[in-house]
Structure formats: structure tokens, C-alpha cells
Structure of Helix-turn-helix transcriptional regulator:
Amino acid sequence: YNEEFRMMAQSEQFIKQKVKDFKAHPIVVETSTSAYDAIVQLFLEDVGTLYAVDSEGHLAGVVSRKDLLRAALGNRDLQEVPVSVIMTRMPNITTIYPEETLLEAAKKMINYHIDSLPVVKEVKGEKNKYLLLGRITKTTITRGYLELIEGK
Ligand code: ADP
């Protein structure tokens, strides 16, 4: 009973933690990067999602495994396809702020059927312009939860 109670209390605490304390480094490419090079990056960095930034360094798009698989289905030379034409672009990107909680992050990922969220900061006075601070993924949250329960 005590063990169960401890885990419940910890779970409740965990889900209230802030995104900023759990975020991982974002793997970033430029919008002009080819789909071919994006695939290479996925393998090199061992991630499922890349974030594309524009020439000013603002978040421009999200490139996931499915986006790259879809591009590979077309009979195009992936060296010639920039990620800008296959990515999910602003303003359709679901983002999260550092001060939000892991519960909010988990809800967004489940509700929008996505594996990761870019952690962002708004550029003052500019609508839909964000600086990229990190990423939160289903893996980040699951790992954090396990570490807590296992007392690491
Ligand atoms: P995968 O394609 O590797 O399964 P996702 O499930 O996260 O990864 O991606 C599914 C689709 O949702 C892709 O088209 C991707 O561009 C898009 N997507 C991923 N993350 C986001 C996000 N934070 N906001 C909006 N769209 C996203």
C-alpha cells in the first residue's frame, strides 16, 4: 500500500513539472537542407524529428519521419528536394512554452497525434515568430517518469 501511495504522489508531482526542466536539445536544419541530408541527420542524431529554421533563425517547420517517407514515395531525387517543401510549416506548428507543465505537453502530443513539441520563446511584437529553445518528446517524458519512479 505504501509503495502504491508513494508512486501516486510522485506521479502527481511529476506531471506538474515544468517543460524547461525536461527539455532536450533540438536538432535543427535550415529550410534549404535537402530531404536526403535530413534523413542522414535523423540517423546521425538518432531522433525522429528535425526542426527547420529560416535565415533569421526563427522556427519555420517540423520535419518528421513520415514527412521524409512521403517524400521518398514520390519519384523525386531527394537530394533536390528542400525540406521546406515537405515540412509542416508555421503557423500549423504546435508549440509549447518553457513555463508550461509536462501534463500540458503530454496532452498536446496526444491530442494532435504528434511525437514531439518544439519548446519556444516568442519574438516580441512579431506574430508567429518563435525562437527555438528545445524539444519535448514522448520519450523525454517517459524517461523522466521512469527515472523518478526508480528513484534515480
Ligand atoms: P513521425 O512522422 O515520425 O511519426 P510525428 O507523428 O510527430 O512523427 O509526425 C506526424 C506529422 O505531424 C508529420 O507530418 C509532422 O510534420 C507533423 N508534426 C510533428 N510534430 C509537430 C508539431 N509539433 N506541430 C505540428 N505538426 C507536427
About this structure: The pocket of adenosine-5'-diphosphate is lined by residues 48-49, 62, 64-67, 88, 92-94, 114-118 (CB under 6 Å). The chain has one domain: 2-149.
